[in-house]
Write a structure and sequence with these properties.
The chain is α/β, with parallel strands linked by helices. It is 40% helix and 20% strand. The N and C termini lie far apart (77 Å).
Length: 606
């Protein structure tokens, strides 16, 4: 029914020889069906009348022994008609294929159906895969169903959160002191040495991805969309989708094939530039840096066959920046109730650009592939929204918070464009606050003055301000305005020194409950020393003390002159706790501002 063939040198192999790479030239392999034989096995009545499921399309997969099928009921994901989102982006018939509704929350489950079933068919003793996210989770889940061990190789330093699904499914995670490329090499060696199946973006996985195309056709009542847009990392998923359309066209099941458009992040542009230059292979990127982690791939294995099939479909490639992707991610959630990972928002993010370049038109039926659930990358989702403060348990405080405008600013966060290149005037601050952040300065005059003071303080250390930094400051001003912590503790100034050979020292000047005081102390760093000095004064002036339970430093904006955001959690002797935030261009200042808030708020509760 099918043969395994190299996409570059056309060498043919048996499944016992290789199912991953060409043994002669190292390029990707493809599965080529005997279409005449395949057509004889197709029952159109069954296709038209059987409920959707990836298992429905077994005739189109290269699986010989159906008793070895490993399935978690993948497929049958929603094709969401997105009318409001379409209105925003200028597409009248816009659909989202929500692959986040698969068993492990990602499109890869379709490929795992075929790949792990093939592993069982071939008698593999185990599965090995190099991955740090979606692939590891899916392969681990299907390996668990198959009852075979799954070994996941990841670079040292991979966050545990990215591996939580794999670990929960019983994946045996091995951290490697090296790069992702080292993990790939070692996984290939493990597969050979221990007779494991090497899982990943290889030929059999791509065969499972064809079912996305099949379901789109059925969900559109056997009509073919004009355009299908999909994010591209290794290229395996989009190639499988495109191949699915072409196979059904060749079988006579559909009358046409959609234009296929692949989209990549600007910082992981391996195929877009190659396509534009008319090249047949990708351009390698050693260290791709897109926040779209699922497609942040520097050397896509399926480059040749994807470039070829997109040209065959008369489609295109395009690239988009990360900031636009984050905005699209939020728009998809608010206007279509589809919460996808950043990579899954790439097609929507690119719609406006594709329209402007006339690569799509507003009257066409456009299907965008949302590749995975938003919870696959929860950190990116938090970039979109402000860190909302807690309010005291009274209706008055809730009313004050609602009037503050904080809730209206959620869609404004994350913009890294420079807002002010010189110190901002009061009129400039008012204009930006009102137009960009819906902040009513006339309704909150005192709060606006506080904002102006904070912006002025910012420019004492920095020469320019990004939009995201202005947003951070505005958040903190609103958060703090209804509680004046400086009435309890005000840090007037500090100085500190540190070196390789000695402990850090710091001297502080503070005002505690209206009394001025100074002190100096040593510590492991300037922050520790300054807090120790403040605590000695607090102990002297009051009978109250707090304990620092958590200390977290984040840098929301990049570059040498980055803004620092410090989060601290404190607890007092009565088990009252509080979480506070300090924002500054200096980590020590941000830390002391957070400490000032934390002490004052707990003192107020004692």
């Amino acid at each position: 029914m099918y043969k395994i063939q190299c996409v570059k040198c056309s060498s043919e192999f048996t499944e016992k020889q290789t199912i991953t790479r060409c043994l002669n030239c190292g390029q990707a392999l493809d599965i080529q069906f005997d279409m005449k034989r395949l057509k004889k096995s197709v029952n159109e009545y069954v296709l038209h009348n059987t409920p959707l499921s990836a298992l429905k399309y077994l005739n189109f997969y290269p699986i010989k022994n159906r008793e070895k099928i490993i399935s978690l009921n993948e497929g049958n994901t929603p094709l969401v008609f997105s009318e409001k989102l379409g209105e925003k982006y200028g597409i009248k018939k816009l659909y989202i294929k929500d692959e986040g509704k698969n068993p492990t929350g990602v499109f890869k489950d379709r490929g795992s159906l075929v790949e792990i079933s093939k592993a069982m068919e071939l008698g593999a003793k185990g599965i090995v895969v190099a991955s740090t996210g979606n692939m590891a989770a899916s392969v681990s889940a299907y390996s668990a169903k198959a009852g075979v061990p799954c070994y996941v190789l990841v670079p040292e330093g991979t966050p545990l959160g990215k591996l939580s699904q794999s670990l929960a499914y019983g994946g045996k995670v091995i951290k490697i002191r090296g790069t992702y490329a080292d993990c790939v090499r070692l996984s290939e060696e493990m597969a050979i040495k221990y007779d494991y199946l090497l899982a990943g973006d290889y030929a059999f996985r791509g065969e499972g991805q064809k079912s996305i195309a099949y379901e789109i056709i059925e969900q559109l009542n056997w009509e073919v969309p004009d355009v299908v847009i999909c994010p591209v990392g290794c290229g395996t998923n989009l190639y499988g989708i495109a191949k699915g359309f072409f196979e059904w066209f060749e079988l006579g099941l559909i009358k046409t094939v959609p234009r296929i458009i692949g989209v990549q992040p600007e910082k992981a542009d391996t195929l877009c530039s190659a396509f534009a230059a008319g090249e047949k292979e990708q351009r390698t990127i050693d260290f791709p840096k897109s926040l779209c982690g699922a497609v942040n791939i520097g050397t896509p294995l399926d480059d040749m066959k994807l470039l070829q099939i997109i040209r065959k479909s008369k489609g295109n490639f395009e690239m988009i920046d990360d900031t636009t992707v984050l905005t699209a991610q939020k728009n998809m959630a608010t206007l279509s109730s589809v919460f996808t990972e950043p990579s899954g928002a790439i097609p929507i993010a690119c719609l406006e650009k594709l329209l402007q370049q006339q690569k799509i038109s507003s009257d066409e039926t456009v299907v965008c592939i949302a590749t995975g659930l938003g919870l696959k990358d929860p950190h990116s989702a938090t970039i979109l929204f402000p860190n909302l403060p807690a309010v005291d348990k009274s209706m008055e405080e809730i009313t004050a918070f609602l009037n503050s405008g904080m809730l209206d600013m959620q869609s404004k966060k994350g913009d890294q464009n420079v807002l002010f290149s010189t110190p901002a005037s009061i009129d400039e601050i008012r204009n930006i606050a009102e137009k960009e952040f819906s902040f009513d300065s006339t309704k909150n005059p005192d709060l606006f003055l506080a904002l102006c003071e904070e912006v002025k303080f910012f420019f004492e250390r920095r020469s320019e301000m990004k939009k995201s930094e202005f947003h951070l400051i505005l958040e903190e001003v609103i958060s703090d305005f209804h509680f004046q912590s400086e009435k309890i503790l005000k840090i007037i100034d500090f100085s500190g020194t540190t070196s390789f050979s000695k402990k850090a020292t710091a001297c502080v000047k503070v005002e505690i409950l209206g009394e001025y005081a100074e002190s100096c102390a040593e510590g492991t760093g300037v922050v520790d020393a300054a807090i120790s000095a403040i605590e000695s004064l607090i102990k002297e002036k009051t009978n109250f003390s707090i304990q620092l339970k958590n200390y977290e430093v984040k840098v929301p904006s990049g570059g040498v002159d980055a803004t620092v955001r410090v989060k601290m959690k404190f607890i007092d002797n009565n088990n009252n706790s509080v979480r506070v935030v300090g924002v500054s261009s200096d980590v020590v200042v941000a830390s002391l501002l957070a400490y000032q808030k934390g002490f004052a708020r707990l003192y107020d509760k004692k």
